[in-house]
Specification:
The protein is α/β, with parallel strands linked by helices. It folds into 3 domains: 265 residues, Metallo-beta-lactamase, Chain A, CATH 3.60.15.10; 127 residues, no CATH class; 114 residues, Diaminopimelate Epimerase, Chain A, domain 1, CATH 3.10.310. It has 22 helices and 26 strands. Helix 10 runs parallel beside helix 13 and helix 10 packs across helix 17. The longest helix has 24 residues. It starts with 12 loop residues before the first strand and ends with a helix. 45% of the residues are buried.
Length: 619
């Protein structure tokens, strides 16, 4: 706190644009003492009871004044979240200063696309990566903020923030304008027609995608805001909300560059040159490439199923040796796209140990830029890759990688002969949506999943009549042509089921001996066990129902390192920890509910202690 440079007297103005009991929206800005070469910005504080959220808290140069003004409105201990809607320095370069004065558990929400960039502001911040489809933040007494995608308006990774109770929308740069001080009276817009003078040049220069604009307007109209607060300029209220949306909807945007010379709008005047305000015929657009029926977030740039089939080309599939990998193989075999399969561990892909070529398709493993086409659903991969790739099809909202493949190639229409029961089962398996009975007495597809799951541990025991690779290859055809009841009676499947059931009592006893509780975290440390019995990885949540998250600590391959596997309870889903993000910080990866990382043995105890501290601090 004593390191913060304070001004002593704040010239930042503030105005409450919404208040209802303990809920409020306050806008800060229009700093009369700031240097004239700094653009004016609006910083927003949202309160719900005893908790608050700061949205785009501003640049480092205006921090002292904004800090003084905010501190007068709210105890700093109540600020639990900061949202950076995009990467610009005028939106968030003050982040490390806010972290010094706010609570230690402050969460900083940032578009995943910019995570590796905004860490240049503050590496130690507790970042929450916002997926492209947005998310909801809950805080305080009934506080809810919905992050609405606003990509390419102007930033390629950008969000608006909507309060569904207050009906207030923070729109970011959309609706922004550089208004001269002598042409404003407070924060709320008074004369829309006059304000269009300032809106036009700004939006034609900064907003480059009509398609993105139309999508944003559709989402916003569905939300139904009654107040729109832009990051710069004046606040729209009442009828001016619809006036702005109607005006923006018909504005010709992306036209502010003429003859290779961009038109310039200056902070001093807030107006654009006449050339920027004169509409010109838009350049002809190329016909859009075909997109799949249920297009995922990325990767719609490669041929679709029909084009693949027509080409007659066949690929090698690189995937994991688990139920999701099996389902992906079933789907791609159904399309006659693969003629070979390589089962790998994710770390082999991440460390470049697999010879990947343009003749490969991968599913559910880390992305390699040499691949022809990759499918995934892990949030941490969006952060690790750090940018858009035409050959990377990733949807972190999908319950399984198989579902991403299924949707990409047209869903039910593209796979008329693939069992919907199989797709539901792999979604249930990969997202761990099981009931207690499924864990204590698994049947059907659930039992097949547990038998195939490498984490069950059957692979540690030899002597099976058919090796695992051959079994997996055979199951691709079996899952296409047999019922689950018939599959479970196959001799090589039944052999594994028998061993799974035989080990159950010993596995349960081992779990009880090796588990210690740290609050709601169950740590299962089996490094000193001479034999680790095979068993259901979810059984710990049945034996220790008080835990909502677990961490398995095991020796790595040939005891060369230590592996930490963290997962949330599938019965008590109250843990707020973003596991994939946490594992990424320790060199691993995963998604929100599960992930792994590794450490060299000499630092294993230190790593374990730090993981326990971070998990229990959030839990």
């Amino acid at each position: 706190m004593n390191r913060i440079r304070r001004r002593g007297l704040s010239y930042v103005r503030s105005e409450v644009v919404f208040r209802d009991g303990a809920r409020s929206w306050t806008v800060f800005g229009q700093d009369g003492a700031k240097p004239p070469d700094l653009v004016d910005t609006n910083q927003v504080l949202v309160r719900a009871g005893d908790a608050a959220v700061l949205i785009d808290p501003g640049g480092v140069e205006i921090f002292p004044a904004v800090f003084d003004a905010v501190e007068r409105e709210v105890p700093l201990a109540e600020i639990k979240h900061i949202i950076l809607t995009h990467e610009d320095p005028d939106a968030g370069s003050s982040l490390p200063l806010w972290r010094e004065v706010c609570v230690d558990e402050l969460k900083v929400h940032v578009p995943w696309l910019w995570l590796g960039y905004v860490t240049h502001y503050d590496r130690e911040a507790d970042f929450v990566a916002v997926p492209d489809d947005g998310m909801e933040i809950r805080f305080g007494e009934g506080g809810r903020l919905q992050l609405i995608p606003a990509h390419y308006l102007h930033s390629p990774g950008n969000f608006s923030v909507f309060d569904p109770v207050a009906k207030v929308l923070f729109s970011g740069d959309i609706g922004g304008a550089l208004v001269p001080p002598d042409d404003r009276d407070g924060f709320v817009l008074r004369d829309f027609d006059r304000h269009v003078t300032y809106l036009t040049g700004f939006h034609q220069r900064w907003m480059g995608s009509p398609a993105a604009r139309d999508d944003w307007i559709r989402r916003v109209r569905e939300a139904g805001p009654e107040i729109i607060v832009p990051q710069r300029g004046l606040v729209f209220t009442g009828a001016d909300v619809d006036r702005f949306l109607n005006w923006f909807e018909t504005l010709e945007i992306g036209t502010a560059v003429r003859g290779g010379t961009p038109q310039r709008q200056t902070p001093a005047s807030g107006t654009a040159p006449a050339a920027a305000q004169t509409a010109a015929p838009p350049p002809p657009e190329a016909a859009p490439a075909p997109t799949p029926a249920a297009s995922p977030i990325f990767g719609a740039g490669k041929p679709l199923a029909r084009a693949f089939k027509d080409s007659g080309r066949r690929f090698r599939l690189i995937t994991r040796s688990d139920f999701d990998g099996l389902a992906c193989a079933v789907l791609l075999e159904e399309l006659e796209l693969i003629d070979d399969i390589l089962f790998v561990h994710p770390r082999q892909m991440q460390y470049g140990e697999v010879d990947v070529t343009d003749n490969d398709i991968s599913t559910n493993v880390p992305f390699d830029e040499r691949i022809y086409l990759a499918f995934d659903h892990h949030l941490s991969e969006m952060e690790r890759v750090g940018g858009r790739r035409d050959n990377h099809v990733i949807d972190p909202t999908a319950p399984s990688a198989a579902r991403v493949v299924y949707n990409y190639f047209g869903g039910e229409e593209g796979f008329p002969y693939v069992s919907g029961e199989l797709m539901d089962a792999v979604d249930q398996a990969d997202s761990a949506r099981y009931e207690m009975d499924d864990v204590l007495d698994p049947q059907g597809w659930a039992l097949l999943n547990f038998i195939m799951d490498p984490r069950t541990g059957l692979g540690r025991f030899r002597g099976f009549r058919m090796p695992n690779y051959e079994l997996m290859m055979g199951l691709i055809e079996d899952c296409r042509n047999h019922t689950i009841e018939e599959i479970l009676e196959l001799p090589d499947v039944k052999e594994r089921i028998d061993l799974y059931n035989e080990h159950r009592p010993r596995f349960e006893d081992q779990l009880r001996r090796c588990t210690t509780m740290h609050g709601k975290l169950a740590v299962i440390d089996t490094r000193r066990e001479t034999e680790i019995w095979c068993g259901n990885r979810f059984l710990v949540y049945a034996l220790f129902p008080e835990c909502n998250i677990s961490m398995h600590v095991v020796m790595g391959k040939q005891d060369r390192n230590t592996v930490f596997a963290v997962g949330k309870s599938i019965f008590d889903r109250s843990s707020p920890v973003n596991v994939g993000e946490l594992m990424l910080r320790f060199g691993g990866g995963g998604h929100r509910a599960a992930g792994t990382c590794q450490a060299d043995n000499p630092i294993a105890e230190e790593t374990m202690a730090e993981l326990i501290h971070r998990i229990t601090a959030e839990t």
